[in-house]
């Protein structure tokens, strides 16, 4: 039995499904619309926590605050999140505002400030409207709950240009106890993560050692969130945060636990579903693009090539136009900076072979056109140069992407 078969998807589950967590969201006035723009997750006990962050040099103030909180004890009780304002490139005032959000959230939720993480997303370079944020934070306790509505309001509050919420939940048995892992994320534009996604939150009721959770979140990110791209831009605010309440009652998980592989597979599945949802919901996107690379000299090389293909503006434009222009794919492979034998490359669009041994193959253009008009386009590349494999996800590049980003601040 494969490890993937050891967990099952919990329909309708989100961040409040694991034991010990409640969530909620509300509108405090950071957005011009009446959509929710402030939210929080609260754990009833100190939760083992781990995170990965953007490697953009201009890290937003909330990231510094979250790093400070995690450095104190490697546990958290809560995370407060706002959308509509990134609080990035806002200097000392922005940092003070992020710390104020931490302090005020801790006060209303009855926890220590060092037990609170802070996350923000939205427009860069604008100071927070702290009167509105403070008023919203004071109202959070009244809207937080352990039911699906609390999770729904949280998911809605973290969205910016996203068209749909992104959530997933799975369950598995560890030490004869049911364990749940759930996640919620936001992201649609400025998506080209390096060490994290836009904003992602994973909750679990598993008992897990903090070193094991930190290692797992990094490894899972490398093959999921770090393998998506929408527009080649890495945000100043990217963060993926995991919290584990330990309330399922299992024995503490480490890499030596007999059920570790199953838990790790379930955790990666949660991350992959959220990452794919971000790619599918790319700004203006009409199709999810999945690139599978095999035969590379290493997995790292395969990842670089797969992400170069899926991030190519020309490849993305060809997918939008349903044009089976494999020349754009081979060109992206060749500029990825990885070892490739130019005489051995095979390329398929789904099941349709377009290149074999680096030589063109006659194919049915109408069949290819029909395939490329589908909701999901798979580009399959076999380099025949090694054992490395990887999969990356992205989306097509449409007129709407330019329209959305041409007027992002207005």
TrEMBL record:
<protein>
    <recommendedName>
        <fullName>Arginine biosynthesis bifunctional protein ArgJ</fullName>
        <ecNumber>2.3.1.35</ecNumber>
        <ecNumber>2.3.1.1</ecNumber>
    </recommendedName>
</protein>
<keyword id="KW-0808">Transferase</keyword>
<comment type="pathway">
    <text>Amino-acid biosynthesis; L-arginine biosynthesis; N(2)-acetyl-L-ornithine from L-glutamate: step 1/4.</text>
</comment>
<dbReference type="GO" id="GO:0005737">
    <property type="term" value="C:cytoplasm"/>
</dbReference>
<feature type="active site" description="Nucleophile">
    <location>
        <position position="197"/>
    </location>
</feature>
<comment type="pathway">
    <text>Amino-acid biosynthesis; L-arginine biosynthesis; L-ornithine and N-acetyl-L-glutamate from L-glutamate and N(2)-acetyl-L-ornithine (cyclic): step 1/1.</text>
</comment>
<dbReference type="GO" id="GO:0006592">
    <property type="term" value="P:ornithine biosynthetic process"/>
</dbReference>
<keyword id="KW-0511">Multifunctional enzyme</keyword>
<dbReference type="GO" id="GO:0004358">
    <property type="term" value="F:L-glutamate N-acetyltransferase activity, acting on acetyl-L-ornithine as donor"/>
</dbReference>
<feature type="binding site">
    <location>
        <position position="405"/>
    </location>
    <ligand>
        <name>substrate</name>
    </ligand>
</feature>
<comment type="similarity">
    <text>Belongs to the ArgJ family.</text>
</comment>
<feature type="site" description="Cleavage; by autolysis">
    <location>
        <begin position="196"/>
        <end position="197"/>
    </location>
</feature>
<feature type="binding site">
    <location>
        <position position="197"/>
    </location>
    <ligand>
        <name>substrate</name>
    </ligand>
</feature>
<comment type="function">
    <text>Catalyzes two activities which are involved in the cyclic version of arginine biosynthesis: the synthesis of N-acetylglutamate from glutamate and acetyl-CoA as the acetyl donor, and of ornithine by transacetylation between N(2)-acetylornithine and glutamate.</text>
</comment>
<keyword id="KW-0028">Amino-acid biosynthesis</keyword>
<dbReference type="GO" id="GO:0004042">
    <property type="term" value="F:L-glutamate N-acetyltransferase activity"/>
</dbReference>
<comment type="subunit">
    <text>Heterotetramer of two alpha and two beta chains.</text>
</comment>
<keyword id="KW-0068">Autocatalytic cleavage</keyword>
<keyword id="KW-0055">Arginine biosynthesis</keyword>
<dbReference type="InterPro" id="IPR002813">
    <property type="entry name" value="Arg_biosynth_ArgJ"/>
</dbReference>
<keyword id="KW-0963">Cytoplasm</keyword>
<dbReference type="Pfam" id="PF01960">
    <property type="entry name" value="ArgJ"/>
</dbReference>
<feature type="binding site">
    <location>
        <position position="186"/>
    </location>
    <ligand>
        <name>substrate</name>
    </ligand>
</feature>
<feature type="site" description="Involved in the stabilization of negative charge on the oxyanion by the formation of the oxyanion hole">
    <location>
        <position position="122"/>
    </location>
</feature>
<feature type="binding site">
    <location>
        <position position="160"/>
    </location>
    <ligand>
        <name>substrate</name>
    </ligand>
</feature>
<keyword id="KW-0012">Acyltransferase</keyword>
<feature type="site" description="Involved in the stabilization of negative charge on the oxyanion by the formation of the oxyanion hole">
    <location>
        <position position="121"/>
    </location>
</feature>
<dbReference type="InterPro" id="IPR042195">
    <property type="entry name" value="ArgJ_beta_C"/>
</dbReference>
<feature type="binding site">
    <location>
        <position position="283"/>
    </location>
    <ligand>
        <name>substrate</name>
    </ligand>
</feature>
<dbReference type="GO" id="GO:0006526">
    <property type="term" value="P:L-arginine biosynthetic process"/>
</dbReference>
<feature type="binding site">
    <location>
        <position position="410"/>
    </location>
    <ligand>
        <name>substrate</name>
    </ligand>
</feature>
<dbReference type="InterPro" id="IPR016117">
    <property type="entry name" value="ArgJ-like_dom_sf"/>
</dbReference>
């Amino acid at each position: 039995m494969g490890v993937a078969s050891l967990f099952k998807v919990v329909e309708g589950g989100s961040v409040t499904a694991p034991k010990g967590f409640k969530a909620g969201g509300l509108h405090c006035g950071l957005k011009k619309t009446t959509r929710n723009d402030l939210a929080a997750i609260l754990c009833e006990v100190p939760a083992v926590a781990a995170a990965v962050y953007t490697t953009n040099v201009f890290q937003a103030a909330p990231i510094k605050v979250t790093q400070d909180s995690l450095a104190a004890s490697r546990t958290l009780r809560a995370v407060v999140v706002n959308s509509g304002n990134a609080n990035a490139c806002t200097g000392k005032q922005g940092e003070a505002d992020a710390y104020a959000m931490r302090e005020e959230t801790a006060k209303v939720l009855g926890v220590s400030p060092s037990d609170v993480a802070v996350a923000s997303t939205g427009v860069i370079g604008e100071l927070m409207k702290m009167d509105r944020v403070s008023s919203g934070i004071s109202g959070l306790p009244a809207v937080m709950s352990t039911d699906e509505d609390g999770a729904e309001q949280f998911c809605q509050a973290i969205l910016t240009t996203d068209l749909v919420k992104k959530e997933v939940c799975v369950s598995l048995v560890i030490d004869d106890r049911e364990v749940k892992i759930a996640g919620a994320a936001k992201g649609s534009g400025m998506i080209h993560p390096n060490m994290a996604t836009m904003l992602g939150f994973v909750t679990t009721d598993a008992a897990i050692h903090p070193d094991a959770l930190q290692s797992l979140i990094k490894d899972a990110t490398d093959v999921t969130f770090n393998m998506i791209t929408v527009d080649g831009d890495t945000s100043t605010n990217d963060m993926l945060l995991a919290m584990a309440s330990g309330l399922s009652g299992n024995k503490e998980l480490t890499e030596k636990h007999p059920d570790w592989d199953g838990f790790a597979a379930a955790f990666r599945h949660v991350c992959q579903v959220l990452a794919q949802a971000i790619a599918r919901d790319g700004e203006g996107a009409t199709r999810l693009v999945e690139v599978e690379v095999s035969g590379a000299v290493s997995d790292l090389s395969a990842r670089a090539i797969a992400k170069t293909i899926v991030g190519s503006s020309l490849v993305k434009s060809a997918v939008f136009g349903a044009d089976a222009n494999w020349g754009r794919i081979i060109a992206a492979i060749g500029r990825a900076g990885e070892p490739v034998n130019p005489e051995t490359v095979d390329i398929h669009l789904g099941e349709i072979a377009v290149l074999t041994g680096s030589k063109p193959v006659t194919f049915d253009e109408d069949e290819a056109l029909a395939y490329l008009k589908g909701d999901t386009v798979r580009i399959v590349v076999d380099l025949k140069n090694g054992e490395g494999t990887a999969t990356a996800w992205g989306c097509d590049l449409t007129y709407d992407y330019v329209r959305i980003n041409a007027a992002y601040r207005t």
